[in-house]
């Protein structure tokens, strides 16, 4: 980012860094120090809401958004002082939840009055408009941006997303010890077949995040995606995707506004 600014004279857009705050992750302190050193504007935390971390990010003016899948997690994150909650609803990629997004938004907004961000199966501008209609302040996309030209995801990964449907997403704790969504062909190619999906692996993010320690592991050799794959059929530059999402969003809002004349 420093090189980008030197070469172009432009300030980079606000960016975020994900931190897994689970006690089995030995990297979290070192990663946090780097975030503080470079004043990362947005820190996204998961699997642990720690007030000391929130205070550290707030000390330089950064924001902390925390992943949650249920009310209990949201309450703990609220106590820790986070600036926003990312509601990881049913069907999302990664460490997803099982609660319908409408129910989850309603439950969280009943006590949380800061930024609410919805994730899960959001793949186009119509989905973004729907998220805002449900009461979210922001929509959060993951899987859709894997299939972009700037993404470093392997081409086989991108093609698997294009070839998959919602029923090809497997929700299992057999990989990381935490329930997460993975592409069925990816699991099967690494020998994790259907009879194993009900198992729960030992949770160890130190091992999971160390490329030298495991051959079959989440995020690198076993590929994650959400049920939103069902509407992904291409691989295009980020700018084109963002422009398309923006146009779809505007058109969807226009269509929704027409409903006012009917009721």
TrEMBL record:
<protein>
    <submittedName>
        <fullName>Uncharacterized protein</fullName>
    </submittedName>
</protein>
<keyword id="KW-0503">Monooxygenase</keyword>
<dbReference type="Pfam" id="PF03060">
    <property type="entry name" value="NMO"/>
</dbReference>
<dbReference type="GO" id="GO:0018580">
    <property type="term" value="F:nitronate monooxygenase activity"/>
</dbReference>
<comment type="similarity">
    <text>Belongs to the nitronate monooxygenase family. NMO class I subfamily.</text>
</comment>
<keyword id="KW-0285">Flavoprotein</keyword>
<dbReference type="InterPro" id="IPR004136">
    <property type="entry name" value="NMO"/>
</dbReference>
<keyword id="KW-0288">FMN</keyword>
<dbReference type="InterPro" id="IPR013785">
    <property type="entry name" value="Aldolase_TIM"/>
</dbReference>
<keyword id="KW-0560">Oxidoreductase</keyword>
């Amino acid at each position: 980012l420093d090189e980008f600014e030197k070469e172009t004279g432009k300030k980079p857009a606000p960016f975020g860094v994900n931190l897994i705050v689970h006690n089995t992750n030995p990297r979290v302190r070192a990663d946090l120090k780097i975030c503080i050193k470079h004043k990362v504007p947005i820190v996204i935390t998961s699997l642990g809401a720690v007030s000391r971390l929130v205070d550290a990010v707030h000390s330089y003016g950064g924001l902390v958004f925390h992943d949650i899948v249920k009310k209990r997690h949201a309450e703990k994150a609220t106590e820790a002082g986070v600036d926003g909650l990312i509601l990881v609803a049913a069907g999302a990629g990664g460490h997803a939840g099982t609660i319908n997004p409408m129910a989850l938004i309603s439950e969280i907004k009943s006590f949380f009055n800061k930024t609410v961000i919805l994730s899960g199966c959001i793949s186009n501008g119509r989905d973004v408009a729907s998220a805002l209609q449900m009461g979210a302040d922001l929509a959060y996309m993951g899987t859709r941006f894997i299939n972009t030209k700037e993404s470093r995801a392997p081409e086989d990964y991108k093609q698997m997303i294009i070839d998959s449907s919602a029923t090809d997403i497997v929700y299992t704790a057999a990989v990381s010890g935490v329930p997460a969504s993975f592409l069925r062909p990816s699991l099967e190619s690494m020998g994790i077949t259907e009879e194993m999906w009900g198992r729960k692996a030992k949770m160890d993010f130190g091992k999971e995040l160390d490329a030298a320690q495991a051959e079959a592991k989440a995020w690198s050799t076993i590929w994650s995606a959400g049920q939103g794959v069902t509407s992904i059929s291409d691989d295009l530059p980020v700018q084109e995707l963002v422009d398309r999402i923006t146009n779809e969003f505007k058109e969807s809002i226009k269509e929704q506004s027409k409903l006012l004349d009917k009721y």
